[in-house]
Amino acid sequence: MFNLRDFRQDVLKITQAEFANLIGVRQDNVSRMEKNPETIDLSMLMNIANATGQSLDQLVGYKKDVPQALEVENVWKENENMKHVLLDYLENNIEHLPLETEWYDNIVKELEEMFQTMFKKPKVAVVGMSDAGKSSLINALLGVEKMPTSWTPTTSISVHIKHINDRPEFIKDEATIFEGSENGFDVNRIHQHSYYEETRLASGPTSILSEYGTRQGDYYSIEDASAAVVYLDSPILQLCDVIDLPGFGTGDRDMDDIMASQSTEFADATIYMSPANGFLRGTDIEFLKASLNALPAFENSQNELEPLNNLFVIASQAHTINHGNKVEVDSILDAGAERFYREVPEEIWENKSEVSNYQYTVEEIRKRFYSYTTDHAGLREDFEKNLRYLLETLPFIIKQNAWNMMNEYLDKYKKELEIEKVNFIEILDEREAKLEQLKQMKNDEPMRKYEMQKARKEVMEKIELFRDDTQASFEKEFSEIVSPDYIVNLIKSKGYKKKKDDMEHLASFISSKIQAKIQNILKYKSEDLNLIINQYIENFEGAIHKHAYSDVRGFKIPFDTKKAFASGLAGIATFGGLAFWASTLGNLGGYILVAKGVSVLSAVGISVGGTASAVTAISLIGGPITLAIAVSVILGMGVFMLGSGGWKKNVAKKIVKEYSKQDALNKFSNVIDEFWDDTEFAFNSAADALEEEWQKKLSAMEEKVSYYSADDVRRSISEVEQMIKFLEEMPIPFCNAIAV
Ligand SMILES: Nc1nc2c(ncn2[C@@H]2O[C@H](COP(=O)(O)OP(=O)(O)OP(=O)(O)O)[C@@H](O)[C@H]2O)c(=O)[nH]1
Ligand SMILES: [Mg+2]
């Protein structure tokens, strides 16, 4: 199709008005034609060709050069191999394993799930205001012009771009459009054929993106379309999935901004784009902060990744700055980094420091700021070099992390199986003693259950207290922050000036301060809750193994209490405070949270960073609401006319008024309530799972001790040995590429 706008700007290099003059139409006609080039008819084309001295062929064939695809070394190959070796090993052994035993069957299933989960490619999300040039940058990285781009707000759904080799066999098309259920479309489930069928809206060549995935498309009004997955063959996709997102700030659909910002939750790395001309103005910083907050921190001194290595803040279309003057572009980046650093409250940097042990200084942050344009290689080199470095490094980190996790799991399984084996041997030798202990255990059960019920009720009561406490402390913090005095002081201490930009930044700073407070209040209370949960689990453990410890001949039933409790979290949507508990479990917790859909690299942060890293995993707590409120307040500031006189006080009052207009305190209070509701639900699910798992173990043991013949027992011994051998011979390659 004839791209009039680009032709006018890039070839003719004249304004719309000049062009209108040249071809003898009104400027609004030109503007309309540029917006909808498909409406340009043949006679108009002839007219343009005549007026500009171009042939029709030249016009229609005009296409801007797309830069060469980003070349990367395919270091993911090794991970892919490792995954296949492991999956093949499972597959080849399945036939010979005693999988009629539910426990053994679960081990194999868990391993399979883990191999699938741990070797997921990192996801790179490209976000920013509409028209920043996100889709253009992606096309350039891919080296093919597959994402629709235009000068008006374009992309309307999240587009997940994956490598063609990652396409499941049952998918035949290049692109598929999906509808989102209540919780959105879960791209991690796309390899499940049934999920694919259930959520698929349409499929075909990538060009269907223009129909379903753009605001100009014929099917834009179909609100059901929520995501697309596209399979392409570009080098960069060997190392990562790329996500093209709708732009912020279009005001087209209420949820667009929040949707786009939520998808950064799943991202391992984020490219945030803002046009160099007007860099990080208005609500831009607000969205950038939301991305920062959701980004996992996995940098640390051992893996030698730099602070915020997975964040790229881009001043796009840098060629527009005085013909791409590098010095001027750099000073725009300097000022942007400075402003951004100032707008992020210290709590957020402190949280990141707690995970990584790095100091987040403005100098470090500045290193994450880059320029970009498809027009001059010199203005994108630095970005491309750093992106390449990150992408070529992540596979090693993911591999090392997977390796650690697998070893930890295998060790756990092996230990449990060894205990089981000892039990069988003892059944042969001293069945009477075992029968006796089992009888006692059965007798103790009603009392144990009763005690645990009581303990559970106590936990619930504690959670209710936490709810009240956190509500009260938040209310206090909120009224301190959203008060004229505090705001006036803030204006003074941060040196904000009486101008629109500064007012927006002030409003933005206040909103992140509030969110940081919510996060911290909930984090501290959740840490208290961790102690209570661990106590609950310890009591349970003590009760079921009472005889094993008190009786010299007592025996232990192999049972991992913590893991059984955690398994109750698997099927539920939000953990509340239990996310913090999970994050104290190291690799196990990382794995549980990753299986839930948080980014692969969060697992690395979680396995080393403890509860501080869970803040990322739960950054959505309050996130969307804070974002929505902040954006309204900031926009409210925009139309606020600054009177003369005590402007600081006036501004402060205006902000306080905006917050009350937004009913902010109430909304935040609901967020806190929901957090504790989720916590209660999660705790009950986990406690139920623990009880259920234990009952299963106990009955299984009872059956063996009471009814197994000596032959049965001998067969069971050989089965458990078979399982141990199966785990011992797992072909886990030696791996010490990078410490994490
Ligand atoms: N010459 C030039 N044009 C660019 C560059 N980046 C973006 N553009 C143009 O800017 C317009 C907007 O770019 P898009 O890539 O569609 O922007 P986007 O961020 O994806 O916008 P939404 O999808 O609406 O969120 C398009 O017409 C692009 O051709 C660039 O580096 N150089
Ligand atoms: Mg786009």
TrEMBL record:
Keywords: GTP-binding, Hydrolase, Membrane, Nucleotide-binding, Transmembrane, Transmembrane helix. It is found in: Membrane. InterPro entries: Cro/C1-type_HTH, Dynamin_N, Lambda_DNA-bd_dom_sf, Mitofusin_fam, P-loop_NTPase. It comes from the Bacteria. Residues 4-59 form the HTH cro/C1-type domain. GO terms for biological process: mitochondrial fusion. Its main location: membrane. The chain crosses the membrane at residues 565-588, 600-621, 627-647. One of its GO terms (cellular component) is membrane. GO terms for molecular function: DNA binding; GTP binding; GTPase activity. Pfam families: Dynamin_N, HTH_3. This is HTH cro/C1-type domain-containing protein.
